[in-house]
Amino acid sequence: MAKQDDLFKNVVSHAKEYGFIFPSSEIYDGLSAVYDYAQNGVELKKNIREYWWKAMVQMHENIVGIDASIFMHPTTWKASGHVDAFSDPLIDNKDSKKRYRADVLIEDYAEKINIKAQKEIEKAKGRFGEVFNEQEFVTTNERVKGYLEQKNAILQRMARSLENDDLADVKALIEELGIACPESGSKNWTEVRQFNLMFATKLGASADTAMDLYLRPETAQGIFVNFLNVQKTGRMKIPFGIAQTGKAFRNEIVARQFIFRMREFEQMEMQFFVKPGEEIKWYEYWKETRLNWHKSLGLGAENYRFHDHEKLAHYANAAADIEFNFPFGFKELEGIHSRTDFDLKAHEEFSGKKLQFFDNDTNSSYVPYVVETSVGLDRMFLAVFSKALQEETLEDGSTRTVLRLPSVLAPTKAAVLPLIKRDGLPEVAKEIIEELKWDFNVSYDEKDAVGRRYRRQDALGTPFCITVDHQTLEDKTVTIRHRDSMQQDRVAITELKNIISNEVAMRNWLMRM
Ligand code: ATP
Q1: Where are the domains of the chain?
Q2: Probe target for ligand 1 pocket from 245, 379, 384, with the most ligand atoms within 8 Å of CB
Q3: Can you give the pTM of this predicted structure?
Q4: How far apart are CA 295 and CA 312, in angstroms?
Q5: 403-424 pLDDT tens trace
Q6: Residue of the nearest CA to atom 6 in ligand 1?
Q7: What architecture (CATH level 2) is domain 412-510?
Q8: For binding substrate, which residues are annotated in this chain's numbering (predicted)?
């Protein structure tokens, strides 16, 4: 655990030191769970957004994008169920005065049991070697079976209690399991209560005519209310999708994990409208497709896993998370939900307008079913950033910090460095920048010895350093240094664009999907 904590601390401090993420309004001591993206962070975030948009919109003929407003008519949130049901069960520890999500306390407990089972499996794998049959082991080894059954029983009971709104049983479960406050070790808990996560605000000048509004807690509803507008004006045929990226706001009960859980965050969502009865096929398709998108970034397939939901939200008939191995363990990165016709039907009912698709083939109308993919942009940032940050011991025994960002996402693609600050080298370096900047984000650095400049760029995740030296003046060649291998090649200036492009082009990365 200590190692994990250290890694996480490194991530937070590196993000600040190298201009990726700052605490919001830091001169006033910050605002809890609110963060600002800095000069490099904003580029990385933009690149992740673009990587998603290209994969979802540009590469799918039947998916289009929109950009709906954050404010929506307040009835939207009545219809969607958020006013009545968008809440988390909270519990306070009476001694430490710390507040927790009751479901998260129980899930963390269950995960500890799961980890015990996984350790046994790993040990057995080592013992049996090639002949190891995991499926058989898991179903026959008494100890592992016991752990897994125990874990499932806990999660199932929690799911049932939450579904039945039996908060007393959620508390009883916490007590039976002997779950203690992670901060203080105390088991002195309050009752469990539901807490609505939406931020309310007002629209209008005078107090009596002002209208109560909410900051949207998800971008999805902006898509549902525009379903028919897009379908008609875009002449879309089912199945088709509408994608959107944008801010969402949740008054999270516990927000202590940097940009993993923020009160203002960004989502990248796509709602896919399908014929009723075909939703499970599409749900499976999108689970697979989204996992492949994540894997295409090369952060390691072992860092992803599916978690199928025991407890389904009020709108879903199937749901799974893609979980990622964050510095604090496997947690939700993306949700894939089969939302049925719940949302469109509810909006029909509350608005009195039809939200149906007319099927020319059958000459009849129906309310489509919806499969949603929803990934947090900030969580995606944290996933990429935390996996990329590495401390490396080099052959000569020295260490370097390197941010091995997938080069397609790197904020700066190349840094151009004159070996020394005179003899006309800076001028040539700047000429190279003038040429490359049409295609790539590039930077110039002439301060300090070249070795230190390399290290600085390694820490920023820049895939290439291009060094201009005296030979450049003679034969128009430069050295190009690769961030990950540190290999240096001598190449003609005219080749640079191709070399960089080959490595960073989205096309080449997305083709791995
Ligand atoms: P969690 O269980 O972690 O609270 P959720 O199931 O409520 O998440 P969804 O409503 O499915 O999340 O939202 C879709 C995605 O939006 C999540 O997978 C996550 O990546 C992102 N997300 C949700 N809440 C936050 C938050 N407070 N901060 C950052 N990202 C978030």
Answers
A1: 102-178, 412-510
A2: 379
A3: 0.88
A4: 26
A5: 999 999 999 999 999 999 999 9
A6: 335
A7: 3-Layer(aba) Sandwich (3.40)
A8: 101, 218, 265-269, 372-376
